[in-house]
Automatic annotation (TrEMBL):
Mg(2+) binds at S31, T54. This is (diamondback moth) hypothetical protein. GTP binds at G24, L25, D26, N27, S28, G29, K30, S31, G76, N132, K133, S134, D135. InterPro entries: P-loop_NTPase, Small_GTPase_ARF, Small_GTPase_ARF/SAR. It comes from Plutella xylostella (Diamondback moth). Keywords: GTP-binding, Magnesium, Metal-binding, Nucleotide-binding. It holds the Pfam family Arf. One of its GO terms (molecular function) is GTPase activity. PROSITE patterns: ARF (PS51417).
Amino acid sequence: MGLLEKLSLWLGGGAREVSVVVLGLDNSGKSSLLRALHPPPRTPAAEEPPPPPTVGTRQDHFTAGGVSFSAVEVGGGRRHRALWERHYRAADALIYVVDAADPLRLVVSRSELQLVLAAGGARRVPLLVLANKSDRPDALHHLQVAQALSLEQVQGVPWHICAASAASGAGLAEGVAWLARELRTTHASRKGQH
Ligand SMILES: Nc1nc2c(ncn2[C@@H]2O[C@H](COP(=O)(O)OP(=O)(O)OP(=O)(O)O)[C@@H](O)[C@H]2O)c(=O)[nH]1
Ligand SMILES: [Mg+2]
């Protein structure tokens, strides 16, 4: 089923999920963010052990702005990155997670993001970048992360960046609300063209 059909069903009250792929280097915090997006009740982050590194892919679900998301996290370790493109091509939206407290890996993170966007070809789906670990005192400001990733050069893709913390939950609501809004707007404008 295509995005437009899914959104029609969802806007019309049908309970359908929009698929989002969650990418980013290993240790950036993808599993932790998805855990933090789980609806309550959930165990407070401080009481849970950190998630194990993701091997291959993991499925998850969350809801934001009235939209139900079916999320696929693809492991960020080097050997899993070959899987990113395939999952990106099948997704309705991309969440790209960056460890804002690890400036040395931003160059690698930028080139991996550029590769995956290029692999999408003409397919343009919304991109939400989460500058994660903003709770850490050494974390870069999200605008510095945007600059390091050269986001201003990303063309034809609606994108948004915000500071986030899987540890405290900060920034998550803002980020996913943007994504939900963006998907609704895209749907509404396309509908208006027909
Ligand atoms: N301080 C802090 N630590 C975090 C945050 N998010 C994740 N971490 C820690 O970062 C480490 C990696 O988190 P994961 O969620 O496993 O990272 P991942 O991106 O899923 O990694 P892979 O599955 O290997 O690709 C863990 O020790 C987490 O506890 C955050 O917002 N703040
Ligand atoms: Mg993981």
